Structure prediction request, 230 residues.
Amino acid sequence: MLKHLVAVFLFAVILVPAGVQAELPWQTDQHTRYMALGDSLTAGYGAVPATHGYVYLLYQTGTFDTVPNTLLSNAGVPGATSKHVLDHQVPQALEAFRPHVITITVGGNDLLSILQGSDPASVLLQFQSNLYQILEQLREGLPESAIYISNLYSIPEIPISAEPVAALNDIVEQTAAYFDAEVADVYGGFTGRKGLLLIERHDAGLNVHPTNAGYRVMAEAFKEVIKQNK
Prediction:
């Protein structure tokens, strides 16, 4: 009996057209493919649970399409710099998932490098080069895809971060405009508001990741620019 069932199964597989056999869910145009690139903010680090991060909030609220019709790939990795996104995440988008919609949060770990003593001019120059290549490759490889990138929020508890944050945000704004990518104004959403960063809590140390409330503000910033460009 088992041999008979195996034979029937194999016969059925043979009858399936080759194109259907090869087609995976993320290779069909019947779904909206959403891919998130970036660092720990993309990964939802600090949110409790992590699925309360902004990427998952965008997905769960049907920002791009209905949930059943949206395929999500979150490539975000805590600690990722702009160089890591360029070298390891962009190829995933171009060679495998080929998303219709891309969101990016990057620059926080480049900022951290400056705060830890790296030469600001060198870091900013490298960030500019990396971001240029990220958007260039995505735009050339996925010309019809919508690309949304966030700027960086301020960290009032670390005053020396203000100047490099402003410089990084200028680079994001200018580079995004050049490649027809839209900027989610996370900086504006956070400015003047309390309770959005873990560092504000006495038991969180220097953890500058968003709270759940902070991630909701990030999601709203993305939703606002997405709504304007639909």
The beta strands are 32-38, 70-74, 101-105, 146-150, 182-184. The longest strand covers residues 32-38.
